[in-house]
Design goal:
Layout: E1 6-10, H1 14-25, E2 29-33, E3 45-48, H2 50-59, H3 62-68, E4 74-79, E5 85-90, H4 92-99, E6 104-107, H5 108-117, E7 124-125, E8 130-135, E9 140-144, E10 149-152, E11 154-157, H6 164-170, E12 176-188, H7 189-192, E13 202-206, E14 211-216, E15 223-231, E16 242-243, H8 246-252, H9 258-265, E17 271-277, E18 285-286, E19 289-291, H10 306-324, H11 329-353, H12 364-367, H13 380-387
Parallel strand pairs: 1-2, 1-11, 2-7, 4-13, 11-19
Antiparallel strand pairs: 3-6, 4-5, 8-9, 9-10, 12-15, 12-17, 13-14, 14-15, 16-17, 18-19
């Protein structure tokens, strides 16, 4: 490999965009390949905890995000039917002081636009659907659906739950349907003014087997978003989501608090998505190929940390490449896995169990984490070589 290896990132979602931006910032010859023909402002919200905002700081977009996002003072958990408060988790100024950055909620599309804007536009390629990848030892050849090929020294699979890179490493295997679906909708906050109810800036409504998470996605609080977790035994649709309806929502949340009913009444369009998972993978990298985010640890969104783990992965991978040297890619990849596997697996399990912040607890193990500053844990073989 040359001193400046050529790196390819497959997928320009949040994890891929973070990897591409940080690699380009570090001076690596990095190109990002995205299968979509273009990006659009998809109707979804996202939580960005202090652990993620520290990565946004490194990318250079923390201030812009802080200006556009909503800053909840607390995370509330409430009983879905009675409205009783189950937990109150301080955020706001306490998050900034205790965890080192803000906690915000924002429109996923607005976040994505900022992250893509941090990439070199001449090295971001749309409409590039990867169909095959060939690691030849000295380089990797990528084959795209449009008939073109590209080569790179390192290929990062940030291509989601149905990752082609994961399939190359571990064989074809469909992700596991969790038995849960998520309904997603954005509501105009103007509509809510007709109700004499308190629409809090960040609240999760719980019952035994389902929930609704609700929060603002803009700093001016004009858009209010909800995402649910509802049991559904089977997913028999070929598409990644389907249209839902107010009627379906009313059936799913019958007997829930009047505030939840008001949200359903104000819903104009709502979609339904299957929640997919995988067991922790035995392999995150091989040769010149390495995975991050949903490609290696897809999880339910019930901790609001799925995208966060992908972004943390990206930052840690870049840190390890800089630490070891990209020319020593296999050592860098193993150092990356060593420093991500336990944390990602823990978040994956807690997300699966759906217990996060239902009761008062200390979230510092998630929010105080700083991927740029945490002490690196070296694999046993590396420690042995250093002491020899």
């Amino acid at each position: 490999m040359t001193k400046t290896p050529r790196i390819a990132v497959i997928g320009a979602g949040l994890g891929g965009a973070a990897a591409g931006a940080l690699l380009q910032q570090a001076g690596y010859d990095t190109r990002v390949y995205e299968q979509a023909p273009a990006f659009s402002r998809l109707g979804a919200g996202i939580h960005l905890g202090p652990n993620v905002m520290k990565v946004m700081r490194q990318i250079g977009i923390e201030t812009q995000l802080a200006e556009m996002g909503s800053h909840p003072e607390q995370w509330f958990s409430r009983d879905g039917k009675t409205g009783e408060y189950l937990s109150r988790i301080p955020l706001g100024q306490q998050a900034r002081e205790q965890y080192g950055a803000s906690y915000i909620t924002v429109h996923r599309g607005d976040l994505h636009e900022l992250m893509v804007g941090a990439l070199d536009p001449n090295r971001l390629h749309f409409d590039k659907h990867l169909v095959d990848v060939d690691d030849r030892g000295d380089k990797v050849i990528m084959h795209f659906a449009d008939g073109t090929t590209e080569d790179a020294d390192i290929v990062i699979g940030a291509d989601g739950v149905n990752s082609r890179i994961r399939e190359k490493l571990l064989g074809k295997e469909a992700p596991t349907y969790s038995g849960w679906v998520a309904h997603r909708a954005i509501i105009s906050a103007e509509k809510l003014k007709a109700y004499e109810l308190d629409f809090e800036s960040c609240v999760k409504w719980w019952s035994e087997d389902r929930h609704m998470m609700v929060y603002f996605v803009t700093g001016d609080e004009k858009e209010y978003y909800y995402v649910t977790g509802v049991p559904e035994p089977e997913w028999n649709h070929d598409s990644s989501f389907v249209e839902s309806s107010r009627e379906e929502m009313r059936q799913a949340f019958v007997g829930y608090h009047p505030t939840v009913q008001a949200l359903i009444d104000c819903t104009e369009t709502v979609t339904k998505w299957p929640l997919l998972e995988r067991n922790p993978l035995p392999l995150w990298h091989d040769g010149r190929l390495v995975l991050l985010g949903d490609a290696c640890h897809p999880m339910k969104p019930h901790m609001a940390q799925g995208a966060a783990m992908a972004i943390e992965d990206a930052a840690m991978l870049v840190r390890c490449l800089k630490e070891v040297g990209a020319e020593q890619h296999q050592e860098a990849f193993e150092l990356y896995r060593q420093n991500r596997f336990e944390r990602a697996s823990r978040v994956q399990q807690v997300s699966h169990d759906n217990t996060w912040l239902r009761e008062n607890e200390d979230p510092a193990w998630v929010f105080a984490y700083d991927v740029h500053d945490v002490a690196l844990q070296y694999p046993a073989t590396a420690i042995e070589e250093q002491s020899a």
